[in-house]
Each structure stands twice: as structure tokens, then as C-alpha cells.
Design brief:
The protein has 119 residues and is an alpha/beta fold. The chain has 5 helices and 5 strands.
Length: 119
Amino acid sequence: MTVGMDTLRDWLDQGRPVTVLDVRPSDQHAEWAIPGSVHVDAYEALKANDPGALVGLRLPQDRPVVTVCGMGRTSAIAAQQLRDRGYEAFTLIGGMKGWSPAWNEAELSATRATLWVGS
């Protein structure tokens, strides 16, 4: 089960109850993260398909969990492990790379524009 950047952004903007679980290494999370996300450095264990990678992790079960990694592959493993434990878990399509447009969009006024083309 997956969720796209637009859907997750809408859920967060609307204040919908959702837990974003970031499973990337700590240094990557420190550089850039989805605001309000929960972080657990489980990347290497998940990448190695360790079934105990998320053992001991307690998350609210009354809301969906969206797992996030760099590109979406390792977080898919995390989402499956959470589903196996009874959570409604999704993985963010494309991971943080897929999330990037959520931060790179801007509204611009197009009432007057000039295009200069020349050498």
C-alpha cells in the first residue's frame, strides 16, 4: 500500500491524524525531515530484511502510518512489518525524493511577465 506526496501533503495540511515514520539513518534525518515525523534509525536493519527492525516501536494504532526513507524501497519493508503487526501502514511513493516537490512548489502571480531572449 502506497501514498503519494500530494495525498500526504493534503492529510498534513488538513490536520488529519497520521503518523509519519522516518526510517532513514540519523544523519539523513537531521539534514531534512517531514515536520512532525517520528524518527527511528532502522534503515540498515530494514535493508537487511531483519524482521525485528521495528520491534519495540510503539505508534498510535488509531491512525494510518506513512513510512518514509530516501527513495521508498526500505520504507516499503517497514510498512509491511507494521501491517503484519496490525497497523494501517503505507509507504510514501519515492520517499524523501518523492516528497521534495512538496517543498519546492510556489505560487507565482502571472499578471505581468517579460521574457528576455538574446545573446
